[in-house]
Design a protein that fits this description.
Length: 136
């Protein structure tokens, strides 16, 4: 699939994928969201992370589940629940996992997306709304 240039994908996921975590974290400190609330991101996060964890632990890529997540994220984007840039970045990473050549590559890509989502949660959602609500 073709995506418009996603800052989240380019500046966070790609940096994490290349092992440049400092640059990815710096990008998150200036990343702005306009529609994505803590509650809406948590719902998406809670759908994606179990799938990523299964891929990480077993290298079993369930293409149908990844497609379903892709559709759900697109739906949430179109409902203006999640910012377009964030949604496109996540969808692009999910497609990369689904199209991985081998289980080891899929596992690495799943770990990268998981790390990126965790960092987004910590730096953008929870860090930007300090004291608004408890996550952990």
């Amino acid at each position: 699939m073709s995506y418009s240039s996603s800052r989240f994908y380019t500046n966070v996921i790609q940096n994490f994928k290349g092992g440049n975590y400092d640059a990815g974290l710096r990008a998150l400190t200036s990343y702005r969201i306009y529609r994505t609330t803590a509650a809406s991101f948590r719902k998406i996060y809670n759908m994606i992370v179990p799938v990523l964890d299964r891929i990480i632990s077993s290298s079993n890529v369930d293409s149908r589940t990844l497609i379903r997540l892709h559709i759900i994220i697109e739906y949430q984007k179109n409902r203006n629940v999640i910012d377009e840039d964030l949604a496109n970045g996540i969808k692009q990473a999910l497609d990369e996992i689904r199209n991985a050549r081998d289980p080891k590559q899929a596992r690495k890509l799943a770990e990268t997306l998981r790390d990126s989502l965790d960092a987004f949660l910590a730096y953008v959602i929870y860090g930007g709304r300090r004291g608004e609500e408890e996550w952990l």
